[in-house]
Amino acid sequence: MGTTKIDAPAGVPFIDISREFDAPRELLYRAYTEPELVKQWLGPRKYEMVIDRWEPRDGGTWRYVHRDDDGNAYGFHGVFHGPQSVDGMLQTFEFEGAPGHVSLDSLKFEEQDGRTVIRTHSVYQSLEARDAMVASGMGEGVNEGFIRLDDLIARLLAKEPAGVGSAT
Amino acid sequence: MGTTKIDAPAGVPFIDISREFDAPRELLYRAYTEPELVKQWLGPRKYEMVIDRWEPRDGGTWRYVHRDDDGNAYGFHGVFHGPQSVDGMLQTFEFEGAPGHVSLDSLKFEEQDGRTVIRTHSVYQSLEARDAMVASGMGEGVNEGFIRLDDLIARLLAKEPAGVGSAT
């Protein structure tokens, strides 16, 4: 199981995250682009995950809602910039609880010897918005989501060990 | 005629631009969203401006090409995030001559007494990318574009003095 590294460097409005997974990048790309897979891992376990739309293509939009047992709902949405592929993804991100604060999030899949490091680089419109995102406890949610992603790829690899990596 | 202020603050990857125009914000919003108007002002005069697409709505994409007399072509593209309105616009921006470097650009129209200040705030994925944009001479192009925008709104106001501001 990999270790999630989250870096919020002083003085610049960035958040950088890296995490290694025991899977080829094609499988991780599927987990990030197929909504039936995305809903199985993105975010903490305690939320019900409802994906309104998930269109990983230039100009495609995405939106999902996390609901907890107390009836609270947390919506998120954004758009994809440019072609999305195993070579990288790029999207905007807005938490609907803090409307008007938008980040630009890039993602890379770096595969070596069958394992893949995911690296995200998020840029915020102000240092204050970046700091608020860090203070929101996002790190815990990201880490728990990645543990769920470990489980998802293990299930997918167990189901179709020969098929993975042949599709592009 | 207004003065274009361009600020690239030290240590953070931002470019902030402000410029006052002698027009209500509804007219400026039209100049930013109607492609037949956009092509009349955006960028330096020396380029032929060809707009491939200009879709100011959530998930809409935009692309244009500047061509000079020597046959050089400079393409730019991006996507719009969220609803676009006189209350603000938000889009990604990529110069195709430096692929992979994308900024997130917000725009506000601040009207007072019939005049409108346009403020843009652009965030880059690195300080180096921001500095490269400044070094590219973008300031001169921005300023010349705004002078052309002065001319455009003067033409529009002369043509339809009573109609401006009534449409939303």
Structure description:
The structure is a homodimer of 168-residue chains. With 168 residues, chain A is of the alpha+beta class. Chain A has a single domain (5-154), classed as START domain (Alpha-D-Glucose-1,6-Bisphosphate, Chain A, domain 4), CATH 3.30.530. Chain A is 26% helix and 35% strand. Chain A has helices spanning 25-33, 35-38, 127-135, 138-159; strands at 5-7, 14-21, 48-54, 61-67, 73-79, 89-95, 102-112, 115-123. In chain A, strands 1-2-8-7-6-5-4-3 form an eight-stranded antiparallel sheet. Chain A is globular, with a radius of gyration of 16 Å. The model of chain A has no long low-confidence stretch (mean pLDDT 94). Chains A and B meet through strand 5, strand 6 and strand 7 of A and strand 5, strand 6 and strand 7 of B.
- Per CATH, the architecture of chain A is 2-Layer Sandwich
Mean pLDDT of chain A: 94
The biggest sheet of chain A, with number of strands, parallel, antiparallel or mixed sense and barrel status, is: 8 strands, antiparallel
Alpha-carbon distance between the two ends of chain A: 25 Å
Secondary-structure element pattern of chain A, one letter each:
EEHHEEEEEEHH
Number of domains of chain A: 1
Query: Which radius of gyration of chain A do the C-alpha atoms yield?
Result: 16 Å
**CATH third-level topology of chain A:** Alpha-D-Glucose-1,6-Bisphosphate, Chain A, domain 4
In total, how many beta strands of chain A?
8
Poorly predicted residue ranges of chain A: none
Give the assembly state of these chains: homodimer
Principal-axes geometry of chain A comes out as globular
DSSP strand (E) fraction of chain A?
35-45%
CATH homologous superfamily assignment of chain A: START domain
What is the class of chain A in the CATH system? Alpha Beta
Q: Widest sheet of chain A: strand order?
A: 1-2-8-7-6-5-4-3
